[in-house]
Amino acid sequence: MSKESNAYIITFAVIMIAVIAATLGFAKEFLKESQTQAINLDTQKQILSAIVPLSEVGETGEQVNAYYAKHIESIAVDINGDEKKINQEGEQIIPEKVSIRKEFKKKDKAEKILPVFKFKDDAGKVTAYILPVYGNGLWDNIWGYIALEPNMKTVKGAVFDHKGETPGLGARIADTEVENRYQGKTIYNEKGELASIEMIKGEQNPADKITEHTVDGLSGATITARGVNSMLENYFTLYENYIQKVKKSSANNVSSLENVALVK
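RESULT FIELD:
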């Protein structure tokens, strides 16, 4: 076949188009896989950062994956606090891949999927329950993870982030110093009622204004602070049935151990 013939030109063009299409298809799948891995890694880092400094986890993706696999057990629950393994489409739920943003937008609480990430120590004992939170700030969405002690009452750690809060003002919710204000705070009052945690107005408030249910505020970021307060109250309420079930289960386990000790 002559290289100058129409048949040759058409054949060559078809082959080149096929090669280019295959190359682009491969590149697209490769990039998609890379993006998925990056998203998964970022999710793992956010979850872990609520309970442990990332410097202790490791710098590489392999180190983060290994640490996460060893220390995190993930489940999903419904509004009743019962474990939920299958979604409405009949697919298996992978808690790390649940879109908290999409679940936040669901109007019907009964349809919400609520991930729970249990942090285990080296001996395999659960030492914290990490819950995702999501809400609205001044300009756009805010989100984070709250780690509760096994008593399901005391905050062990917190990490927040945002999409578009004002730098130096509302954006400070993602500062470690602000996040650390939540450590040691309690989400239930003395009567056992859900009290959540409130970021009060103003900053550098007198010590008598800071209680076990409040943290110091952010200067010039009142609306963002209100958004954080609403976000926490909303999600503690959504998870309350699960929290109560964990507390009841823990109490039963303690009672059983005491009975065994008495028998001995």
